[in-house]
Design goal:
The protein is an alpha+beta fold and about 675 residues long. The protein is about 35% helix and about 20% strand. The protein is built from 25 helices and 22 strands. The strands form six sheets. It has a five-stranded mixed beta sheet with strand order 2-11-10-3-9. It has a five-stranded antiparallel beta sheet with strand order 14-13-12-15-16. A four-stranded antiparallel beta sheet has the order 5-4-7-8. Bound molecules: 2-(butylsulfanyl)adenosine.
């Protein structure tokens, strides 16, 4: 769950608590059947969606990404479907339309013969499996043929052809009635005034998307810049704006593109296509553009794989996409599934989490590592990427940093694809403010102020002061890390204080700490001092390979450490090993004297059975803002909890993020404790 979401979340609870008027109280009768919290959430979501609809459609100034908006809508839709009686609760207020309304006052209106729906949206592979489950249940067999195709990110359009002639082109509007933009649509290449051939229905409403191809969009922005104008931010908004232009020359100039992927009315009905492949063939025969490269697959596994393949290719596609559409290929089966209130039940849109965003550089931080190497880190205004909030990205080393030639306030593009760490992928030099100051490689260590050393290969800038507090802090944090001594509660903030106060210089000093020394530190009280000392004491029992990892010798990770542990057999032996650098030998000797790893085995992996989540069986639902589920799960497991994927009778705790749906509802029904991300963090501790 992105952070903006959390903010919105809290904010909209304030919204529903009566600060903003208009929502009548819930009648007792309705309350009785709905679990606690649900009515409030539905109300809050309705208010929230209405607010963003207004910003998006009326003010053209969205505050959240489409992805976040879609998740709000999806959650609301799910809750409304699960608790239809809540619909009555809000009666008297404006319920948000099921789909946004794109109509404006400047165009004539036209009604659709067949309603123009939206698509239900899903965000995870599990939800795709849920969709497949529904389909299988309805059609009665597993071998469902799906058509899996890109979801074009543009403006929906309906083209009515009567006896092969284009008579009308209408935007979706509210689904029933849209803006008649026929004159503009006629200017779009690919829109034929007459269908080719002879074999057309009496009436057909062809449904598709008007969009701007990546190359055309880039071209438009080149012209904008040449004319000294600000570039357009995104191709979808530009396509939407262009379609509603009243100056035909602008429409022609911008080069819109159309693609067709469905139909509304089709008369006579007997002539309708029997499969989507059949539909594509008809389009091609008529000389109209259909979706290129539809993936036709059979069954759930192949369907999920095809969705994954599109997700993988998305950056390379020549047109803008915001997801993948999965449709039942056979029309007869589509009819079995039928239509829901706002969208067909035979299709679903899988939405991509946006993984690229434009933002502004706010600084470059040079971090001293435990070996003294400085790493430049770009700091920027926070953006939501691939489902989490990002404000920093590593620039790796001085040479890569220099190549960017960053200046203060530069507009940059950042990316976080899948599990990949965030990266800066572009700097927009054209938007650089005149006179902006360039960022340079520092000459002195930002931590200790000692002059920096440039490695011979020129790549790294190094602080060679072994007493550098920055290095000491990093060494300590590494020592205490989970893979190392696993000292819970010793993070960067505390490490910094310990070093700054001169209480700790090297890792062995940790075992010399006393409560008397710790308690006076800011942010440390008697209780947390006792906890920390307890943790430190327990870390003495870590196995040898963990201790070796904790020492942080260059190039010695868990695998090498495990081999070394078996070879040397004890920490005392390691302390005498010739091939080890003197500083590490020194620490090892000290640690032995302090009773570390005295009884330890070379390696074992006993799972922790202590910690704030000891005894808990935890289930996650919905998205978290700062961690992936796997990361959060690892933390909970490290804190003694058992993480399971599904709610069962064993479950003792549910962590609910944004968009939590059925699991949250069931957990509340069963009286299982539910906490949010903030509470999760509080319990995990610093
Ligand atoms: S199928 C009549 N396929 O997404 C067909 N829709 O959010 C029903 N869209 O209303 C939709 N690419 O405007 C379909 N390959 C695709 C699409 C697609 C983009 C749009 C379309 C739809 C909206 C729903």
């Amino acid at each position: 769950m992105p952070v903006v979401f959390l903010a919105v979340f809290t904010w909209c609870f304030a919204f529903s608590s009566g600060l903003v008027g208009g929502v009548p109280p819930v009648p007792e009768s309705a309350r009785a059947t709905i679990p606690p919290g649900i009515v409030e959430r539905v109300r809050a979501l309705r208010a929230e969606v209405a607010y963003h609809d207004d910003l998006y459609f009326k003010q053209a100034a969205p505050e959240i990404s489409d992805y976040d908006y879609d998740r709000l809508k999806a959650e609301l839709g799910r809750l409304e479907a699960a608790y239809p009686n809540i619909t009555d609760v809000g009666a008297g207020t404006r319920l948000p339309a099921a789909i946004g309304d794109d109509r404006d006052d400047s165009w004539p209106k036209a009604r659709h013969r067949v309603r123009m729906g939206s698509l239900d949206k899903v965000f995870t592979a599990d939800e795709l499996a849920g969709f497949h489950g529904t389909v299988v249940e309805a059609v009665g067999h597993e071998d469902v043929v799906y058509s899996v195709e890109p979801k074009f990110d543009g403006v929906a359009i309906s083209l009515t052809y009567e006896a092969g002639r284009l008579v009308r082109a209408v935007t979706r509007g509210n689904g029933e009635e849209g803006d008649d933009v026929t004159p503009n649509v006629r200017l779009i290449s690919g829109v034929r005034p007459r269908l080719r051939g002879e074999d057309w229905p009496d009436v057909v409403e062809l449904r598709g998307e008007i969009h701007l191809r990546a190359a055309d969009f880039a071209q438009i922005n080149v012209r904008q810049r040449e004319a000294g104008l600000a570039p357009f931010a995104n191709p979808r908004n530009l396509a939407a704006g262009t379609l509603k232009q009243h100056d035909p020359s602008v429409v022609t100039e911008r080069g819109l593109t159309v693609v067709l992927f469905g139909w509304g009315a089709w008369e006579p009905a007997a002539d309708r296509p029997t499969t989507l492949a059949d539909f594509q063939t008809r389009l091609t025969g008529w000389g109209l553009p259909s979706v290129p490269r539809v993936r036709e697959v059979k069954g759930l596994m192949a369907m999920q794989a095809a969705v994954g393949a599109w997700a993988h290719e998305r950056e390379e596609l020549p047109y803008p996409t915001d997801g993948v559409v999965v449709k039942l290929d056979r029309v007869a089966e589509q009819l079995v599934l039928g239509e829901g209130p706002a969208a067909p039940r035979w299709a679903v849109a899988y939405k991509f989490a946006p993984n690229r965003a434009t933002t502004r550089l706010t600084g470059v931080e040079w971090q001293v590592g435990r070996s003294g190497v400085l790493t430049p880190v770009a700091e920027f205004e926070p953006v939501n990427l691939a489902g989490s909030q990002v404000a920093r990205a590593t620039l790796h080393h001085a040479v890569r940093f220099a190549a960017w030639d960053f200046h203060e306030g530069d507009v940059i593009v950042v990316e976080k694809a899948g599990d990949i760490i965030p990266a800066v992928v572009e700097v927009d030099r054209l938007q650089r403010v005149a006179g902006a100051v360039a960022y340079d490689v520092p000459e002195r260590c930002p931590s200790c102020g000692v002059a920096l050393w440039r490695e011979e290969d020129g790549v790294d800038v190094v602080c060679r002061n072994a007493a550098c507090p920055g290095q000491r802090v990093r060494r300590l944090v590494h020592f205490a890390s989970r893979a190392g001594m696993n000292i819970d509660g010793l993070g960067p903030a505390l490490a910094e204080r310990l070093v700054a106060e001169g209480l700790v210089r090297g890792p062995p000093d940790l075992y010399r700490l006393t409560a008397a020394a710790l308690v006076p530190l800011p942010g440390v009280g008697p209780a947390s001092a006792a906890r920390l000392l307890d943790e430190i004491a327990m870390s003495r029992e870590r196995n040898l390979s963990a201790v070796i990892v904790a020492l942080g010798m260059p190039g010695v990770g868990p695998v090498t450490a495990a081999e070394m542990a078996v070879r040397v057999g004890s920490l005392a032996n390691l302390a005498e090993a010739e091939e080890i650098e003197p500083v590490y030998r020194g620490w090892a000797r000290e640690l032995v004297a302090l009773g570390v790893a005295r009884r330890s085995l070379p390696a074992d992996d006993t799972a922790p059975s202590r910690g704030p989540f000891a005894g808990d069986v935890v289930v996650f639902t919905g998205g978290l803002a700062t961690w992936t589920r796997a990361e959060a799960g690892q933390r909970v497991a490290a804190a003694g909890g058992v993480v399971e994927s599904r709610l069962t009778a064993r479950t003792t705790l549910v962590v609910a993020g944004a968009n939590a749906g059925a699991t949250l509802i069931r957990a509340r029904e069963r009286g299982v404790e539910v906490i949010d991300e903030a509470e999760l963090k509080r319990r995990l501790g610093p």
